[in-house]
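#onboarding

Welcome to the new folks! Below is a worked example of what a typical request in this channel looks like: someone posts a single protein sequence, and someone else replies with the predicted structure as tokens. Don't worry about understanding the tokens yet, we'll cover that in week two.

Example request:
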Amino acid sequence: MLFGQIVYGPIHSRRLGNSLGINLMPTDNKLCTFDCIYCECGFNTPVSHPKLPTRAEVREALESAFENLQTAGTLSTLNVITFSGNGEPTLHPDFLGIIEDTCALRDQYCPNAKVSVLSNSTQLGRIDVRQALMLCDNRILKLDSAIDATMRLIDQPVNDQLTVAQIKEWLQSFDGDFTLQTCFLRGTYRQQQIDNTQPAELDAWYKVVHELRPKQIMIYVIDRATPVQTLEKISREQMEAIAQPLQNEGIDVIVCA
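Example response:
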């Protein structure tokens, strides 16, 4: 499922509420530093010269969407403006400027809406990306496993040298001021078993959570069709059991299952 526009929705997000989406990647193919086996957009499509929207085009599309919602009388129902779409939004070379424009337009049209970014954490080594994320209300940053082999199997990073230790180091730069997101799943892929709910996986994940101290954690399950057909949805009961030890410590854990 690809998003065919720069700005789309509003749609109801099970994690964020009534959300106006912004897609900074091409509208006709997926472009991402991960190639997650559960991504609703499918696998990456190799393109020689992918066409990204310009900063001006994003601003124009967003302002037009705000004006249309204002005319329809539904602007006040908007909870969040979410950067997601057909790949990793922080890949855009003008990401910082686009976030600055978005915050300004949000303040002008719907100051109660939150600006959120769903990111796979791979670009956090860039200063401009960190600066942009600190302007947002919600920095929702991914870590699907605390074990390298599992992370690589689930997320299939384009950079096959990427490690959990690198991601953790980048996340630590936010000093806990972010939301950690993790997708739990099981199944098979390339004749390998996948299950990041196993005790060894959870022990490693809990350890990283305690080291990072995020202000919030979102754990979720696959909810739509995935490019790999052999994946299974984790039950709500098991997801709540995963969250319980952290919730008992007073950590804010949102379960989307």
